[in-house]
Every structure is written in C-alpha cells, then in structure tokens.
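Q: Structure tokens for this one, please.
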Amino acid sequence: TYPPSSPKVFLSTFSGSSCTFGQSNAATGWTYFKSKLTGANSAYFVPSFFVDPTTFGSSGLANSMDGAFQWNAAWQIEVTTASLNASLVQAKSTIQALPNTAATSSAQNVVKNLVTSYTADGQYVSALATLNKSYMTSVSPWFFTHYSPQTYDKNWVYLSDYLYPLRWQTVVSDRNDFNLVEILTWNDYGESHYIGPIH
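A: Here is the predicted structure, written as tokens:
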C-alpha cells in the first residue's frame, strides 16, 4: 500500500499507454479504469507508460496517475556498443598516457559514468514535478534477452557488468528525487534479470 499517510492499493503497469478500455482515448480509458477502484480497492496508480513524460499532462494521462514509473531507468538503454566504443575512443589519448593500473581505472570510469547516468531519471523527475506527481525509479542487476526469429526475434544485452552496485549508488545519492524504487526481477524467464536462487 502507498502512500503511508493514506494507504491505498498500489497499482502499476508495464506499458498500457494506448489502452482505452472502450473509451474514446487512453487518457479517458485510464480515468474510467481507475474510477472503478473505490473504497477498499482505491488505488494509488503509478504506471510505466512508454511515452515522453513531458506529454503526461497534455495527453491527459496525468489525470488518472498518482505518479509514474520509469522502467527503463534500471538500465542505460542508450548505451550501445557503438556509444561505449566512441566514449572510450574519445578518452583514448588520456588513457594511453597513463600507467597500466591508472589506464584500467580510467577506462572503468568511462563505463561507470555511462552506467550511472541520471538522464532517464531526470526527465521523469522534471516532468512529474510540474504535475505534482510521485516518481518511481527502477533498479535491476542484469538484462539480456534471447528469443529466436521464429518467436519474438529479440536478442540483446544491456551493459550490466557493474550495473547493480553502481545503480544503487546513483539511487542512494539522488534519493530525495525518488518517492519509490522498484527492483525489477523475475520479469520474463527469457529476459534474465534475476534476484534469487537460480535452479
């Protein structure tokens, strides 16, 4: 339940920004959906809608939301092999001039700076502050997915080697910006981000 001062059933989603529930648009649909949750079933609604957070107000989605959840904040999805290589190439002359241990540390710092980026959180924090809504960020230890072309045809790995401890450091250092944190785990068997025993 949340918030502590006036507990309600905590309700979140994975996507759903286009669900209309038989109404004329998604904003009206979610308002209709939430209106059905009354009394003991009243909900504190913090969805993960995969849309630009600056559009929550103008689209009307904010009318049904008590906050928003940024599922993709757990992983720096904008970090690709190409962007990582570009960052390392940019730092190459500095790194090469250093002794081996310092060079390794410098290269690790390049990776750390990418992994601990506040960009995804910052966009939500700014947008939700103007709407006076809560923000729930996310943390996860790992993400990879492999589905063959005969099924979902998804095959990638998010940069994750140092992700879990570094992400927690970011969340703790910026904790005043976050109302809630969700640890993403056991989402889909084929998307392997687990906390718990693997048997």
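A few notes: The first strand starts at residue 9 and ends at 11. Residues 100-115 form the longest helix (16 residues).
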